[in-house]
Amino acid sequence: MAAADQSVEPMTSEHLAELRERIQRAHTELGDVCAEGPSRRFRMTVPADPGRDSDLIITAGLEAGDALLAEVERLRARALADDLAYKSMLKRAEKARADANELGAQLRLSFPPGLYLEIQQVLDRALGTEEKDGAGAGIVADVALVVDRLANADERLDLARTALLADGYFKPEEVGPDIAPRIVERLAVMREQIDHLQAELTDAHGQLADAQEVAQ
Length: 216
What we know:
The protein is mainly α. The protein has helices spanning about 15-35, 40, 55-110, 115-125, 140-165, 180-215.
């Protein structure tokens, strides 16, 4: 079976209405030709008139039918492809669940009950125990959640490092894995700059007040 072309947009309602009208006109024209007889009703003009000539009206209807059939076949192929993709995803999810359950059973067998409980308590302290925390689905799921949160933390750390380098105060080689000291240093410098600006503004305000007093 040929793969469905996912890039092709479905027909619009306007296009479908136009095809339906062309097919209906072809039906009406063919019915009139059959009722009156080809010799009396079948019309062909020179130059050709698509809105009046029997052969062009019927041909347009047949072409519209072909277009509708092609659309139906494309949508059917797409539906079959989506169904296969869903079944494949469902099968992978079921296998992942079975693997997780098997791993959980192996962990229970590998660790003494006391140690298993201690590991769960450590995870509970790290993740929380409420359903809203996303934990509580077993050790395997909790470890996966810890890994996910660590990855998220690493991503946020990279964003913080990028922001720290954005204004050019630090060079990349000056910002190591531990960016906390650099953040503190940058904040201290920014605080000094703000204090300096405040002092200049105060001085400028005083000069302006003096000038206004002299002007009066």
